[in-house]
Records
---
Amino acid sequence: MSLDRRGIKQRAREIIASSKPRVLTVGMVFLLLSIVVELLGQRVLSVNVSESEAMNYMNYVSEGNYEYALKYLDGMTPPTSAYLIHILLSLTMSVVRAGFLIFLLNTVRGNAPAFGNLLDAFGFFPKVIVLNILKAMLVFLWSLLLFFPGVIAHYRYSQAIYLLIDDPTKSPVQCLRESRLLMNGHKAELFELDLSFIGWYLLAAFPTFGYAVQFWSTPYIATTKTLYYDRLVGRRAAQTVTASE
């Protein structure tokens, strides 16, 4: 059965309009946290370089004193602790993002969603972090071959985080394997679903204005993809029951 993209997106809009607490409100909190963490990360990695210091560096380069220039540049780079803090902030937001997905799954299933769901993933945060790292590594390694194998890998493991949320007792590796099986024959339809949001992605990429767009597009797209996962596992369950009969 092919995916009804219009139907699933319409259902997402209906859920957003009637949900309590509102998906848009919780999404706004999530997005604001993301923006704050992003700005903090940029601030941590920023380096205040005076005009005279920049001129000294340029003079070293123009004079061919590359050894001095490199040493000077090394002194202007952020310390190792800054990179560690940036990584920690990114990992923390990955756990909050999992919490947002918990909220959306509870919403689409009518399982008493609450603002507190944003923090629920901290109950199994090591698995969330390991899963995200393993997925990133797999996509990166496949991308070394060519661009398209990397894209395919991204969609192959796209459902792993939902599977972990559904059953936190599973290991990250198990979730990645199950996602690969779950996405057999469905990677193209999820890719097409993503393409249907291309206009929102482009608008969200604009500086400043893009943040305003994201207050709608982020919850809307995330709700649609959560519905997609819910229907995907439902279809797989139905196929399993049919096969056993």
---
Amino acid sequence: MVLSLFPSLGYEANERFNLMNGDTRLYFYDSGHGRQVDIFIDVFKMSHVIDLRGRLDGDGPCASPADLLLSKLQIYEINRKDLIDVIALVLDHPIGEGDDAIDARYVARLACEDWGLCRTVQLNIPRLLHTLDELDVDRELVRSRVAEIQGAIDAGPKPLKWRLRAQVGDRLQWYELPEEVRSPYQPE
């Protein structure tokens, strides 16, 4: 369905990338409008792996706010655009349960299961707060919601595997650098 939908909307498939990665990820671009679409199948894999199986069957049109938050905060080489996306997401969604809320318990559970994901989130929160200081938004609301998420992660139980990996710390790389996919029309 996806393979026919995006071309019908004017997008071109990156045939080589899609052939090599089509079981987990697809890439389409709209050169006329300078847009690109990166489609992940079942599992979101960039710097870390977030398994979305069983999480996309809700009433909403896309992933939950918590999954969208993690899709950004899991990026080791996070950029300003991604940080602004996180700030917008946190501004628009309260912390709590339900389709429209960021479920801090879910975020904490995933971070407490994977030291590497947790470490990357820990590194990105100060970057997020630094970017927040440069924006004209309700900073206190964002800070309080981010603090609530961080508090849930800090309070979450860490299994032995997590604690052992934490002892190794930053001495051993804990993240992947994902393949950068470029449109053939995108300048080098």
---
Amino acid sequence: MKLNKAFFRFYEELNDFLPTAKKKSFFLYSFNGNPSVKDAIEAIGVPHTEVDLILVNSKSVRFSYQLKDGDILSVYPVFETMDISNVTHLRKRPLREPKYILDVHLGKLAKLLRMLGFNALYKNNYSDIEIVRTSNAEKRIILTRDLGILKIKDVARGYWIRSQSPKKQLTEMINHFDLYSSIKPFHRCMACNGIIKKIKKESISDNLQHKTKKYYNEFYQCVSCKNIYWKGSHYYKMKSFIKGIT
């Protein structure tokens, strides 16, 4: 049986998923029958959650489009800051107050995101199924170092973290999702993701160590896990870290 042929080109960070020979240039893709463009893209190695615009012969199409012999395809990543509303968006508009759920490999990143005030769910025993279900139920963006999760059919929105260093991962996240204007430091509990609110010293006095009670008067508490926070040396270290990020 004669194989059908199409030509693909992937743009910007989608090239991270491709071998060197296929990066930033058109390459031949051979196929039988008429597979959906979504299946073809994932067979090439790019998770569908990373894609937001597909042009076939210069016309935008949906994931369900069935490939035809001779098609020429241009595939673009999720646009967080560019307006492409006049073409076929493959997902809802970018979330302006995004929520995240992180896989088991990203515990340190979860804490850093919370430190900056972002809603970031994390457990060190989440299964892939739990992550996908929670993502869909709560409309959370999946953050992962595992490409397999993003290739699960039911995943609607996700992002593959390229960096391995937690600090670089945080910078990557802020840049990719254009989060600079959304940073609210010390708004969330780094331990549980709950909201932190100011609390009167006398109401928690019995829970404070002697020196803390003596030298500090301004306190904050997580409404969920009841962790207590104050502006000690740890606060100024984190503040300096945040200044280096932003």
